[in-house]
Design a protein that fits this description.
It is globular and about 65 Å long. It has four helices and 19 strands. With about 400 residues, the protein is mainly beta. Helix content is about 10%, strand content about 55%. A 16-stranded antiparallel β-barrel has the order 2-3-4-5-6-7-8-9-10-11-12-15-16-17-18-19. The protein has a single domain, classed as Porin (Beta Barrel).
């Protein structure tokens, strides 16, 4: 009997020792994946195996919206839809240094219409990570590239119901490849991050369109006054109510060699390959409920942005080249209502002015945070002015109500 008790004690001690050998502190094992920033008020629904060799966190979120549109010269109309429906899994396997993240999308606007010869687009992120310590993050798979700040933020962490018109045209979005991030964030001291990526340049879920070009992306983030509270660069608005001013300055550049789509990783197919260059600059300030953001984005092509169908020269497509500025200001009241204003201006390159308009957009929004960004009510009024080359300007506007909920 004594031998049996001793054997059980040894087995129990060995099991505890095995668990301790792979378990890291809460600060180290926070699943902060720098290549896939996301806003999370909680930790979702988590499962950990008894031997601590496997961890799975489950999250979901959805956006339901109704919009009323009035475009100049057209009858008014309304639209109700599930704008986004996402399911996300993340965790580690074998050791907390080896992590994974999977994000699937199911809403029609996320997946798009199924077309012959094209892949169904439910996979947004499928990426594995090696994180040896809190300063380094290596990843392989499909996820967001280190581009402009608003695109990096989850669509569930936005103050208004959607991103800006410049983000829609000039962002670099998701791609498949390798990324390396070096993170050096300190609460009260000057901080900085370096991020780089080598990717296919063709966007997400692309097969059968291989070429001899790759996309090279680099980004620098500076925090002169120290890092934001609760990773505050990853969500819009000062929900933390920073007690001291915080500032972020960042710059990103990408060269997409032999791109096959009108917007690099996004857009429709070109008739001929083009090498494009993208520049993205961001600034963010938060203090005591106030938040201000500004950004500049541009895309240029090394050759003529127009491409023509060799079988029919009247059929053509073009790289969306040009630049734009965004300015956004908000204040969060003590009752968790927030007032937001945004102004965007977009200039297209003269080579495509006959086909694409210059644009200005004015947005005013009111958001009620019930459970921070994970449960909120949003109302937005947006006015657009579109000016085509050699033609009159058109004025369009919409009014929108949206509910965001998730875990």
């Amino acid at each position: 009997m004594k031998k049996l008790i001793l054997l059980l004690a040894l087995l129990f001690g060995w099991k505890n020792q095995a668990q301790v050998s792979i378990t890291q502190s809460k600060d180290d094992n926070d699943l902060k994946l720098s290549t896939l920033p996301y806003y999370s008020y909680g930790k979702g629904l988590g499962l950990t195996s008894p031997d601590s060799l496997f961890q799975l966190n489950i999250r979901f979120r959805m956006q339901n919206r109704v919009s009323y549109f009035k475009n100049e010269g057209e009858d008014a109309e309304y639209d109700g839809q599930i704008r986004r429906l996402r399911l996300r899994f993340d965790g580690y396997v074998g050791n907390p240094k080896f992590l994974y993240a999977i994000q699937l999308s199911f809403a029609p606007g996320d997946v798009g219409e199924l077309q012959e010869g094209e892949n169904i687009n439910i996979i947004r992120d499928a990426v594995v990570f090696y994180r040896p310590n809190k300063h380094w993050n290596f990843s392989f798979g499909q996820t967001k590239l280190p581009g402009n700040r608003q695109r990096l933020n989850s669509s569930g962490a936005l103050q208004l119901t959607d991103r800006s018109i410049n983000n829609a045209k000039f962002t670099i979005d998701r791609d498949f490849g390798f990324q390396v991030h070096n993170l050096n964030e300190f609460k009260e001291h000057f901080s900085y991050n370096f991020k780089g990526a080598v990717s296919t340049g063709e966007g997400r879920n692309i097969t059968g369109k291989s070429d001899d070009g790759v996309a090279l992306t680099g980004k620098v983030e500076l925090f002169p006054l120290g890092a934001f509270g609760k990773d505050g660069t990853n969500f819009e608005g000062d929900l933390v109510r920073e007690p001291k001013p915080k500032l972020m300055l960042s710059g990103a550049f990408q060269q997409n060699n032999n791109s096959q789509r009108t917007q690099g990783q996004l857009g429709t197919a070109l008739f001929d390959k083009r090498t494009t260059k993208s520049v993205m600059l961001d600034a963010m300030v938060k203090y005591n409920g106030w938040s201000a953001m500004s950004s500049y984005m541009s895309r240029s092509a090394t050759d003529n942005p127009l491409t023509f169908n060799p079988a029919d020269v009247s059929d053509f497509n073009y790289v969306y080249v040009g630049n734009g500025f965004d300015y956004q200001l908000s204040y969060l009241f003590q009752n968790d209502y927030e007032l937001i204003g945004r102004y965007s201006i977009q200039h297209v390159n003269e080579a495509i002015q006959a086909f694409a308009p210059h644009a200005k957009q004015y947005s005013l929004g009111v958001t009620k945070y019930i459970w921070e960004h994970t449960f909120k009510l949003q109302t937005e009024l947006t006015f657009d002015t579109l000016r085509y080359s050699g033609g009159p300007s058109t004025n369009d506007w919409y009014l929108r109500f949206q509910v965001e909920i998730g875990i």
